[in-house]
Amino acid sequence: ETGVTQTPRHLVMGMTNKKSLKCEQHLGHNAMYWYKQSAKKPLELMFVYSLEERVENNSVPSRFSPECPNSSHLFLHLHTLQPEDSALYLCASSQEISMGQGQPQHFGDGTRLSIL
Amino acid sequence: AQTVTQSQPEMSVQEAETVTLSCTYDTSESDYYLFWYKQPPSRQMILVIRQEAYKQQNATENRFSVNFQKAAKSFSLKISDSQLGDAAMYFCAYRRGRGDMRFGAGTRLTVKP
Questions:
Q1: Could you point out which of A85, B27, B75, B90 has its C-alpha 20 to 30 Å from the C-alpha of B54?
Q2: A46, closest residue in chain B (CA to CA)
Q3: Segment among A40-44, A61-65, B105-109 with least mean pLDDT
């Protein structure tokens, strides 16, 4: 069983829909991440919640809204998405000791998102 | 800005042979971390090996080893005795601080029986 669980595994939605992606980690980690993986492009770090602090990537459009209610759960709320937002969205977690310690990240299986 | 470059979009290797995947990165920092991740068709990213920049000794994990050349900003992955289960996308990644993780575009490795 993976230590990081993502639901749903697949999601098809229209551009006017509102949906949420869910991530749960069972590893006791204190940092969680959202990544976007598009075809033939490097993984893009979207959001980080680390040691109770949210680190934003300013290039992420506001139609993506993260929420981290506790250290084990992370959500990505989606609203009015565009076709170019179709991608695999990966969640990851890590145990951060202090800033810059480079702890490895553990990934979930991702949510394949398709925007019609 | 830190960037990670994987110049080989695809590689293939014969089963039981050795293959080396290339990775270069750009940074002005002296203290950072480098990773190789594997992503099989199941989609889950799996950590293969990790290297701390302040350590001169190359990391080794069973059949996987790295050639870390700090001055050249090079971090290649060597897979020895390749197995069919090694077939996957391999991503090189760089990390400096909290929330600062950069990935390369990946190399697709095919293992021929």
A1: B90
A2: B99
A3: A40-44
Cβ distance of B91 and A88 shorter than 8 Å: no
Instruction: Please give, rounded to a whole number of angstroms, the shortest distance from the CA of A115 to a CA of chain B.
Output: 20
Supply angle C-alpha B105, A99, A97, rounded to 5: 105
Least confident of A28-32, A74-78, B13-17: A28-32
pLDDT of residue B98: 65
What is the distance between the alpha carbons of residues A101 and B15, in angstroms, rounded to a whole number?
36
**Phi first, then psi: what are they for A31, rounded to 5°?**
-140, 140
- Asked if A65 and A77 touch (Cβ cutoff 8 Å), the reply is yes
Are A7 and A55 within 8 A, CB to CB? no
Chain B CB contacts of A100 below 8 Å? 31, 96-98
Q: Cβ contact (<8 Å) for B97 and A99?
A: yes
